[in-house]
Amino acid sequence: NEEIALGNVEKDIFSLLIKNIGMTVSKSSFFDYMNKPSEAGLRVLISKLKKVLEIDIINTKGIGYKLEKL
């Protein structure tokens, strides 16, 4: 098994997606876990999760992000 290194913020964001699997999570919900919340910063974090974990996180334009399945 390969261990994947994620920071605390990435872990929190992934956990939020898991808890709400199949549902769109609003950007403001993600911002609660970020030190300096911004849409650009959130895009970077989501992109990192998608790449590192090899999962499909869907952008619900203007609203937030959704994880359909693992």
Which key terms come to mind for this protein?
70 residues, alpha+beta, three-stranded antiparallel β-sheet, 3 helices
Description:
- The chain is of the alpha+beta class and 70 residues long.
- Helices cover 46% and strands 16% of the residues.
- The chain is built from three helices and three strands, in the order H-E-H-H-E-E.
- A hairpin with a 3-residue loop joins strand 2 (57-60) and strand 3 (64-67).
- The protein is globular, with a radius of gyration of 11 Å.
- The protein starts with 7 loop residues before the first helix and ends with a strand.
- The mean pLDDT is 92.
Taking all Cα atoms into account, the compactness measure Rg is: 11 Å
Q: Give a count of the beta strands, DSSP E runs of length 2 or more.
A: 3
**Multimeric organization:** single chain
Give the count of helical stretches: 3
Short summary:
With 70 residues, the protein is an alpha+beta fold. It is built from 3 helices and 3 strands, in the order αβααββ.
Give the helices and strands, then pairings.
Elements: H1 8-19, E1 24-26, H2 27-31, H3 39-53, E2 57-60, E3 64-67
Antiparallel strand pairs: 1-3, 2-3
Helix pairs in contact: 1-3
